[in-house]
Design brief:
Layout: E1 2-3, E2 7-9, H1 18-23, E3 34-37, E4 46-47, E5 50-51, H2 52-58, H3 60-64, H4 66-72, E6 78-85, E7 91-93, H5 97-109, E8 129-133, E9 137-143, H6 146-154, H7 162-170, H8 173-186, H9 189-206, H10 211-219, H11 224-229, E10 232-237, E11 242-245, E12 251-263, E13 269-272, H12 280-286, E14 300-301, E15 306-309, E16 317-323, E17 330-331, E18 338-349, E19 352-354, E20 359-362, E21 369-380
Antiparallel strand pairs: 1-20, 2-3, 3-6, 4-5, 6-12, 7-13, 8-11, 8-12, 9-10, 9-12, 14-15, 15-16, 16-21, 17-21, 18-19, 18-20, 18-21
Helix pairs in contact: 6-7, 7-8, 9-10
């Protein structure tokens, strides 16, 4: 079992205080957006044996187990994070596995450099993800029904939004959502900026269901993504609740602290709320134009006090143990690799004492026992 020393990424949207408060450290004055736990080449966790990527590369079957290597290859297939958002992240969508492989092969064939700003596919993998709230957490997830989206836009009383309202009322669901999103993202930018400004003022005046979009416009004035976001469900998670984001589902995180786990991929197609490249044709190829409920997940009880966040993906499995004062130890030994993350209290994992924000990597088959009083998230795979 290896104690992990993890990198914190200073993205501009990150909170300056949430991760330091969790870790019990002094703020640096910079945004501290994400703390990464895993073997991602961009910022692999460090151990006493070297980086976690180096440890796994040296003996994949020993660290990951034969079954995991056979199913996912000689790499850790997930990345675990603590995410602290103080401002909205970009509105985005992820490809499915077939789309990722096709898009990556196409860009490789065309010689698009991996670090080019217009590059969409950094790898040939999909990127399902799960966010579990540690504090109240706001996000956008999946399309509203066209009728509800039309009502939200119509209530603003902005004349330039009326064509979108009419389209949402007049077409079948998938066509309505596709046509309106396409129109928003391809409209003249100066005209769109004026519409966004009018819409933002109306959202601020109306409040209620419109309030989140006034905040988006505050952070991204004139951005078409503000209008695109109004097509989506707004959701507020309470601590312990989670969202699963599958392929093709547009989403954005707005604010809060959470534990995030995802397949180990960097493939993102952006819809807005960003100065970065937006590839509208490729985005429209990937988005699933169907209204859906956000599907808030609550953990399901499993043996030995484990609470599991059930998802349809095998690259990761996230669960938690809430250990009461004076409780018994729990044996978490598995034939798959694990990362154990403490988010509250004080727990012991093997020979390691863990406080909030501290984590360990457990090689496949290695004995993993936890005890103490606190909350431990457990990340592993399904084989």
């Amino acid at each position: 079992m290896d104690r992990l020393d993890n990198t914190v990424r200073p993205y501009a949207w990150g909170s300056r205080t949430a991760i330091p408060r969790l870790l019990g450290t002094e703020p640096t004055g910079e945004p501290q957006a994400e703390m990464w736990m895993g073997a991602h080449p961009g910022a692999p966790s460090r151990t006493a044996r070297g980086t976690l990527a180096e440890v796994i590369d040296a003996d994949p079957e020993r660290e990951l187990g034969k079954e995991a290597v056979a199913k996912f290859g000689p790499r850790l297939p997930f990345l675990l994070k603590i995410l602290a958002a103080d401002a909205p992240l970009s509105l985005q969508v992820h490809p499915d596995l077939a789309q990722a492989r096709e898009g990556y092969a196409d860009e490789e064939r065309r010689g698009v450099p991996l670090d080019a700003p217009e590059r969409n596919y950094k790898d040939a993998n999909h990127k399902p993800e799960l966010i579990c709230a540690l504090t109240e957490f706001d996000g956008l997830c999946g399309f509203r029904s066209p009728e509800r989206a039309a009502d939200l836009l119509a209530a603003l009383g902005v004349d330039s939004l009326k064509p979108y309202v009419d389209l949402l009322h007049a077409r079948p669901e998938d066509a309505a959502l596709r046509e309106v999103l396409t129109a928003i993202l391809t409209a003249d930018r100066e005209e769109t900026a004026r519409t966004v400004a009018e819409a933002a003022a109306a959202c601020a005046r109306l409040g209620g269901d419109h309030a989140p979009y006034a905040q988006l416009a505050h952070h991204y004035p004139g951005d078409p993504g503000v209008l695109a976001a109004m097509l989506l469900n707004h959701v507020r998670l309470q601590p312990g609740e989670a969202l699963f984001l599958g392929a093709g589902v547009p989403h954005a995180y707005l604010s809060g602290l959470g534990v995030e786990i995802m397949a180990n991929s960097d493939n993102v197609l952006r819809c807005g709320l960003t100065p970065k490249h937006v590839d509208v044709p490729e985005l429209l190829r990937v988005v699933r134009f169907e209204a859906s409920d956000p599907g808030v997940l609550r953990p399901e009880a499993a043996p030995d006090g484990e609470e599991v966040y059930e998802t349809p993906t095998d690259e990761f499995r996230l669960s938690r143990h809430v250990l009461p004062e004076g409780g018994t130890a729990h044996d978490l030994t598995r034939d798959t690799p694990q990362i154990l993350l403490c988010t509250a209290g004080a727990v012991r994992a093997g020979e390691h004492e863990l406080g909030p924000g501290r984590s360990v990597f457990v090689p496949a088959g290695e004995k993993a026992e936890i005890s103490g009083a606190g909350t431990v998230f457990r990340a592993t795979v399904v084989v």
